[in-house]
Design goal:
This protein has 477 residues and is of the alpha+beta class. The chain folds into 2 domains: 100 residues, Glutamine synthetase, N-terminal domain (Ubiquitin-like (UB roll)); 349 residues, Creatine Kinase, Chain A, domain 2, CATH 3.30.590.10.
Amino acid sequence: MFTTLADAKTYCQKADITMIDLMTVDLHGRWRHLSMPVDRLTSEIVKNGIGFDGSNYGFAPIERSDMMLLPDLRTAYPDNFSELATLGIICDVFAIDQPDNHRFDQYPRGVALRAEQFMRSTGVADSIQLAPEYEFNVLDHVSYSTRPEASGFRLDAGQGEWNARKDDEDNQGYKVARMGGYHAAPPTDRLYGFRSRLMQIMEGRNIHVRYHHHEVGGPGQIEFEVEPGGLLEMCDKTMMIKHIAKCQAFSEGKTVTFMPKPFHGEAGNGLHVHMNLFKDGHPLFYDRNGYSQLSETALHFIGGILTHIPALCALTNPSTNSYKRLTPGFEAPVTIGFASSNRSAVVRIPAYAKEPDQKRFELRNPDGTCNPYYAFSAILMAGLDGVRRRIDPTREGFGPFDANLYSLPPEQRANIRSLPRTLDEALDALERDHAFLLEGNVFPQRLIDIWVQTKRAEAARVAQLPHPAEFEMYYDM
């Protein structure tokens, strides 16, 4: 939004801004923030930053935890949800050094920045354009417990089919059947106004929405598709979209979750990512005579992604809940392959994108529990590895598969490789296969090690908790 502090100060004065909110991203992809009066935003802070404890972000040991937050004035935005007029600014993290501090190599925005720089250094492309699809549930109630004597959760959405049986004066019908919400219209679609309010806020923050709609999931599942942008840009916008959705829902007495699979038997929430490459303004993924009009570069990019996708899942699907979504029958991929117009394939080439600058493909396995900076950067690194090594996805046995992969006979499915079935399987793959991430020092080895250690601990905790279904199956044994 601003290139100089003077521009920021002028805006704050005209808009009666009283507070500055400095936003940062932790290891897991959650926002952290600290706030100050507008007068405290000085040239010293813009140049040298503000000290903070990096150990609480998961970035550093407690004995070496001093770090600096450096505001990036280009990312400034008006905060719609603060009581006082506030200007938000996304920050970068710097490690303390002599004579000058340096960018902390594990910080998510730094990884994305290096991924873009590495792409340009290869000569393959100078720009990647990403267009994520954001799926999430808007709920009226959530409660959960993991106490030793009581474990479970309860979710509710007013339009959920189970509420049809409520016999009270507030029940006006118009419920959404299980798996029946796709493009539902009002009054069954109760969230149309909510989505439009979100869209207005997004547009005000330079996040341009292509369209929004109700998704397949009956209990309040919605989707936003946005216009494409560069890697770092779309990482920042992904964080912002999640923040806007949660805060607006909270202000309206609702709650939002991007969990991949909050409801058993309903469609899960993905974060499908459309992508294409450009060089000197020319699209690189189009070939009129190629499979589904894809160029050799595009196919090699796909080959790299599919070759490394078991490892990628540790970053694109980094929660135990992720693998409850990646099951057959819910439009989520389970096998490793590519195809045109096929929503059962992990890489889908949209048939309706026919123009050269629109020719792209969609990666369908990622979900909203990912840290977008790590996930999108890893996807780019895998694709570039495929282009540089000229990995042919067909020769490697990845398709194209133009049949419904869910309904193939068992003998045919046995010949198609599968995505990891658990977080631990994905972490095993990442430990075996991460050299492509280390190219150009984009991902430091220390980050990979910390990520695996942290996610192993999460998986172990969930594996050790008694599950309600276990009581149903085994209590009377």
